[in-house]
Specification:
Helix content: 55-70%
Largest sheet: none
Radius of gyration: 19 Å
Order of helices and strands: HHHHHHHHHHHH
Distance between the termini: 59 Å
Length: about 200
């Protein structure tokens, strides 16, 4: 890009970090159609990375590499925005150019771009697991929306489960889909909290 010429790699790295911050301001647009729920791309990528890390341990793959693939997989959306399934029927985006321009001149071209491309291609075990992690994060949100009373979340959940491909991903997705999203705290290690009045 012309406006990047003559700028130092350090300045471009600063640009890269500010651009990464845009993901916190970029909404995931599918919830507009679902009718409830909300999150931004950074929130999605964070939990997807944790899910990918867990799946890779179960699969005997590289957990750190899988987590990194999850972190970078939607980076282009800082420039393109998030397209839900309806948007994608009518709009196109040049995701690779967006990522290439984001790292141009920063010194990250030889490390960041290959990660993003690997995740896009989905050919390595880690990339396959990162794709499942992407869906399982959505499944977590759909379970919560279903539990809170959105009847359409169950339909979306059924479709999302079909997109999970790896054995480890399918097993985790089934466990998540059968769960109550409040169990982690309501059925926590010390149920006595229910009987005690909170101290002032």
């Amino acid at each position: 890009l012309k406006n990047h010429r003559g700028r130092s790699p350090s300045a471009r790295l600063a640009d890269f970090l500010f651009e990464a911050g845009m993901l916190r301001k970029t909404p995931r647009t599918g919830y507009q159609i679902l009718g409830s729920g909300a999150e931004n791309v950074a929130e999605h990528s964070f939990r997807a990375a944790l899910i990918g890390w867990v799946l890779a341990q179960k699969a005997g793959a590289n957990p750190e590499h899988t987590a990194m693939l999850c972190l970078v997989h939607d980076f282009h959306e800082a420039r393109t925005g998030d397209f839900n399934y309806v948007n994608s029927m009518y709009n196109t985006k040049d995701a690779e150019s967006a990522v290439r321009h984001a790292v141009e001149g920063s010194g990250l071209e030889e490390s960041f771009l290959p990660l993003w491309r690997e995740q896009e291609d989905g050919e390595t075990p880690e990339a396959s697991l990162s794709h499942d992690a992407d869906q399982i994060d959505l499944i977590c949100n759909l379970v919560e929306e279903r539990n809170l009373g959105n009847p359409y979340a169950a339909k979306w959940l059924e479709a999302a489960l079909l997109r999970v491909k790896t054995p480890e991903g399918k097993k985790l997705a089934e466990a998540v889909s059968a769960a109550d999203h409040t169990d982690w705290w309501f059925k926590g290690p010390n149920p006595e909290w229910r009987k005690k009045k909170k101290k002032d």
